[in-house]
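# step 3/5: fold
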Amino acid sequence: MAQVIDGKALSKKIKEELKMKIHNFVNLGHRAPSLRCIIVGDDPASHTYVKNKIQAAIDVGINAATIKYDATLNEEDLIAAINSLNADKEVDGILVQLPLPGTMDERKVCNTVAPEKDVDGFHIINVGQLSLDMPTLVPATALAVIEILKRYKIETFGKNAVVVGRSKNVGMPIAMMLHSDQKHDSGLGMDATVTVCHRYTPPDQLEYFCRNADIIVSATGVPKLIKANMIKPGATIIDVGITRITDEQGKTKLVGDVDYEEVSKIAGAITPVPGGVGPMTVAMLMHNTLEAAQKLREKEMKI
């Protein structure tokens, strides 16, 4: 059976480390890092996600608060609110919970957040710097995957990796860091040989690429897309997908992209859903908030 990668336990360890770092940061005379989470509308899942992020922030010593707006808010007013936070020297990190109402341009809104406060790593400047292996704020889910591989000492140098999913916030940054040169400035490179698959990859080709992979990272939201016959014995499987389904007994549950029960009999290591990448994503968001605060203080001291 595969080693189960316990994202919940690992995220707890990382949050304990962050709590100590923030304590030391404050002891140097700095105010505590601050985070503002903007949410528009009444989507229950989004409100749950934001609640979890705020609680995690408070637990590690971050001054965090939620700013809620009705779905009737127009895009211009949201952009004005973000610009107000951009100008607020008491705010280090800004997060806009997605999805936004269909009347809004998510890309335009995300690009309104000041790059140095963009703890989600969605601004085009942060994405561009990541693609050039420059130090930057990295999307939290992508950073969670890389941190899992590092902390569990999964060898990536020269290994074959397949990323299933090409979203700009998850699949793309994961693929970029997996293939990047570790010697570059960001220090996030994993030196793997990477293949990116997606919804239009023919099933037989997807199976071919996966069977030759030492590492598979799947982020599609398609339940049981990755099956046991697609797995190279001993491969590491990182399941980023999360979908709520109704089982045969009529109960709802969360599942990933991977047929966990069968794949875990063949893989060398595997993340569960829930309890894998999800908790680590929240931990990495806290990491980004502290990093943003540290860089903003350094900038202030130079002025």
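# step 4/5: annotate
The radius of gyration is 19 Å.
# step 5/5: archive (pending)
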